[in-house]
Write a structure and sequence with these properties.
The protein is mainly beta. It contains four helices and 22 strands. The strands form five sheets. It has an eight-stranded antiparallel β-sheet with strand order 4-5-6-7-13-12-11-10, covered by helices on one side. Strands 16-15-14-21-22 form a five-stranded mixed β-sheet, with helices on one face. A four-stranded antiparallel β-sheet has the order 17-18-19-20, with no helix packed on it. The two termini are 35 Å apart.
Length: 315
């Protein structure tokens, strides 16, 4: 069991909020949410069941008005959004910038975070976006005052009626990407989302590590290439196996590589690979979040070409 990560709602522009960071995997985020039920309460997972790659995965926390938005392909955080900033206190440099006791008005935000370039009025949303490196505050503007920001050089301190705008949303994103369109690039040394090419004959090529594992590999070979597994387990034994005329009666066994999204089944007699299980970490699946997503390509052989050479394609 992973060590508990206490959650402190500290706004870290370009990085994240507390221990929920931009670029985190869905497993890392869910772990934080599960370990702090007193802060987050219930969590809703939203996704497209018909095509899980067509839309983002959203972890919604209604009690505090927080959405953690993850890219569906990489299953990494691209945007953290708070849509009830007057009800949940966020801290910036140890001081609340919003919450029940701190109304996030335009002047208060500008004073606390400091000067920045004039924001952008988005007519379709009738809102003014005040953009800082790594965080954006969204202020609703009545349609009647939209003309005040047509030049794109005005700051929304006070509206013509004497009122001051109040932030309705706070978006935390990577620096230089206010829309939070993509997660930040992975570190070159990270093996998360490493491309794995798999053939039906059991050959599995790890492109970043430059190693190949096939059905002849032993547990020692696998550990040498991939490191120590996250866990091991025995395959369930068929109760009718006692009637078989061969076999030692020993159970086949798995090496579980949760961080790689791979299970490897070894034969109990030969101690070599018998089966590979590659996990896509689909939100609708019963095993969701037990494994990270395995970024694999299934290389299927096709008929020989005109020159007689074998061809393949990515599945």
């Amino acid at each position: 069991m992973s060590e508990r990560q206490p959650f402190r709602p500290e706004l870290l522009p370009g990085v994240g909020v507390g221990t929920i960071t931009i670029g985190s995997t869905v497993r890392e985020v869910v772990t934080v949410l599960q370990q702090n039920p007193d802060v987050f309460g219930s969590v809703e997972i939203k996704f497209c069941a018909e095509n899980t790659k067509s839309m983002d995965i959203v972890l919604e926390v209604p009690s505090i008005g927080m959405n953690v938005i993850l890219d569906s392909r990489e299953q990494r955080v691209r945007l953290i959004e708070f849509w009830k900033p007057r009800e949940f206190a966020l801290l910036y440099c140890g001081v609340a910038c919003c919450g029940p006791k701190t109304v996030p008005t335009f002047p208060s935000v500008y004073h606390q975070l400091g000067p920045t370039m004039p924001g952008e009025y988005k007519a379709e949303a009738q809102a003014y976006w005040l953009v800082y490196p790594g965080v954006t505050f969204v202020f609703p503007i009545p349609q009647t005052f939209a003309h005040c920001f047509a030049s794109g050089t005005d700051l929304a301190f006070v509206l013509p009626d004497g009122s001051t705008p109040v932030a309705s949303r706070i978006k935390v994103h990577a620096v230089g990407d206010p829309a939070g369109t993509r997660p930040p690039p992975l570190h070159p040394s990270s093996y998360y989302m490493e491309r794995v090419e798999v053939r039906p004959d059991g050959q599995m090529r790890f492109c970043q590590r430059g190693c190949v594992i096939d059905f002849n590999a032993t547990p020692q070979d696998v550990v040498g290439f991939l490191g120590k597994p996250s866990g091991t387990m025995q395959k369930r034994i068929d109760k009718l196996r006692i009637h078989a005329l061969q076999g030692t009666g020993c159970a086949h066994y798995f090496f579980n590589y949760n961080e790689l999204g791979i299970d490897i089944l070894f034969d109990a007699n030969r101690h070599s690979i018998r089966k590979l299980v590659l996990h896509t970490n689909c939100p609708a699946h019963v095993d969701f979040n037990d494994y990270c997503k395995c970024n694999f390509d299934l290389r299927m052989p096709v008929r020989a070409g005109a020159d007689g050479a074998a061809q393949s394609r990515a599945a």
